[in-house]
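Thread amino acids onto this structure.
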């Protein structure tokens, strides 16, 4: 049996300072150990997919400063289902590796709860189907360095995650003696600022108009824009293709936790998440994680046209959702609800975030909207180069 300290310290020596996940009783020793070390970061996520996306954001931060660049996503194997989308269309597509610790509940031959009866036997096959290399989590101190070195070599060579499958009894108990203040802190009440006109829905600004405003009012040198999947990313590319832009493909709903991971790992950057109503609804719990984490350098803009426009214009339920009120309840420092693009100028000048804005837009896309001619890998490479110490303009 291994001590949590042994693994975490060996991982720390190799640059792993960020941990994100959803608890499992097998993982409790790790979580307790990390929580009590002020030089390590554990972010409790609403679901396992958000943990993978946040870890990808830390990887995107790159260059090793402040522990940026290497992260561990932890989850029970039952949560692999929640993580399939970002593991197959975010980390794989963009080449953003991370270390996964997946507990093996329902392992064949080990009695467990009935809900693990299917996932237990298929967990190795599921990892292999996602082209994620894996091995058993080490149980002896002498195994640690070889395991971590194999993981790092694989991550460096392939740009893909590496999973450690943790069996029952792998790690000894670690008591939680100190509860970090952030765990019990209560966010102050925030008043939602509503700036709506009486204009009909068809007179609202377009998404492209909003994106042009964002590009015009942000500096390429110290600001990054991460665009949600679908027409949002394609329209941002059409407005301006810049090195500080990332166009998400797939992994719907993951732009917010991705941006959160980047913002936490790189507090010197102004990080803007460009979200859509359908995507935000898919992972609404990410707003709670943003509020609790309270990154001062994160701006979250929700472009709400009440439609899944890139798949045919099917209606979302966003018209019944008070997104700004939800963000305020989750702990964002300011929350704006508007249908006026001009309101974004002052919103972008706010300090001490995180800040949320919902901009009501009309449906419709520019004619002959292009698809990015740069591949996801090329986007990642130039983005990371741009925000690196030597690549910042």
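Threaded sequence (393 positions):
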């Amino acid at each position: 049996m291994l001590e949590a300290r042994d693994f975490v310290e060996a991982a720390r020596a190799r640059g792993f300072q960020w941990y994100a996940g959803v608890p499992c009783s097998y993982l409790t020793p790790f979580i307790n150990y990390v929580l009590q070390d002020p030089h390590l970061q554990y972010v409790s996520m609403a679901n396992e997919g958000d943990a993978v996306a946040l870890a990808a954001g830390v990887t995107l931060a790159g260059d090793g400063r402040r522990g940026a660049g290497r992260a561990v996503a932890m989850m029970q194997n039952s949560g692999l289902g929640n993580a399939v989308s970002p593991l197959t269309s975010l980390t794989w597509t963009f080449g953003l590796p991370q270390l996964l610790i997946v507990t093996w509940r329902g392992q064949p031959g080990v009695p467990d709860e009935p809900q693990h009866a299917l996932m237990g036997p298929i967990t190795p096959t599921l990892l292999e189907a996602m082209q994620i290399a894996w091995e058993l989590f080490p149980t002896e101190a002498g195994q640690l360095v070889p395991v971590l070195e194999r993981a790092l070599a694989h991550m460096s060579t392939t740009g893909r995650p590496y999973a450690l499958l943790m069996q029952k009894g792998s790690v000894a108990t670690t008591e939680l003696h100190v509860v970090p203040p952030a765990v019990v802190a209560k966010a102050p009440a925030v008043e939602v600022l509503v700036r709506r006109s009486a204009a009909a829905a068809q007179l609202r600004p377009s998404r492209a108009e909003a994106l042009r405003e964002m590009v015009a009012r942000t500096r390429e040198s110290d600001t990054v824009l991460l665009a949600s999947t679908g027409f949002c990313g394609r329209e941002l590319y059409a407005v301006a293709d810049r090195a500080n832009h990332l166009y998400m493909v797939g992994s719907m709903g993951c732009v917010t936790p991705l941006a959160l991971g980047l913002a936490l790992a790189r507090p010197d950057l102004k990080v803007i998440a460009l979200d859509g109503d359908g995507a935000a609804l898919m992972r609404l719990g990410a707003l709670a994680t943003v509020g609790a984490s309270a990154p001062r350098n994160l701006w979250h803009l929700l472009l709400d046209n009440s439609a899944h426009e890139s798949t045919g214009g099917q209606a979302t339920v966003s018209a019944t959702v008070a997104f700004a009120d939800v963000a305020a309840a989750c702990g964002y420092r300011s929350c704006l609800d508007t249908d006026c693009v001009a309101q974004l100028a002052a919103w972008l000048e706010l300090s001490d975030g995180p800040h949320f804005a919902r901009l009501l837009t009309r449906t419709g896309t520019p004619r002959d909207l292009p698809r990015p001619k740069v591949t996801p890998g090329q986007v990642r490479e130039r983005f990371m180069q741009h925000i690196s110490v030597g690549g910042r303009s």
